[in-house]
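Our consortium's second objective concerns turning raw sequence data into structural hypotheses that experimental partners can test. To show how far this objective has progressed, the report includes one record in full. It was chosen at random from the queue rather than selected for favorable results. The single chain below, 207 residues long, was entered without modification.
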Amino acid sequence: MKEKIYVGHTLQEVEELAVKELGVAKEDLYFDVLTPEEVSRDEIQVHVMVDANPIKKAKDYLETFLQNANIMGYVERKMRDNVVEYSVSTDGANNVLIGKGAKTLSAFQFLASMIVNQYFDRDHESGFVVKVDVGDYRKKRDEQLERMATRIARDVAKTKIPVKLHYMNAYERKVVHNKLSDWRDVTTHSEGVEPERYLIIEPRVKK
């Protein structure tokens, strides 16, 4: 979690500076004044720490969105190591939340990740990998991509001919790349410019 020691003339000055620099709301911060009472109060030293549950905040955000959109549904949270997954289920609105080409779903995932990781110092902490799924769409899509990647990788390993895949978003490219990352006979790399960026599966050059 983010934390920093500030020096200022008043606690209010430190609070305003911490909110601005740390990018976190005042109610999510804990202020511990370090200056002893007997020392002159012309300046005070304050230890500022994030005091929040970012995983819950992202879940609250998704639930609040459903409520404001008058969508009946619920959000389930699962955690594994540094990966947090939010599974959204609705009563007839899954397609709306997924969107064409899963663009709406990708936006939800981006926002949830921003909410969670804003509380971590990226220079010193890795934070969390955040995933959002609606109606198991992403789970099924991941399995489909992995099957496709395996099938094509076997052909490339056999024929030694590179294969260019269709355009994919960054998340889908990562699914394919991760699936093939430990293959000895093939490797992957991206080419093109968003939104027309794609992966190439090619024979691995043995050293």
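The partners drew two points from this record. The mean pLDDT is 91. Residues 54-135 form a domain with the GMP Synthetase; Chain A, domain 3 fold (CATH 3.30.300.20). Both points have been shared with the crystallography group to help prioritize constructs.
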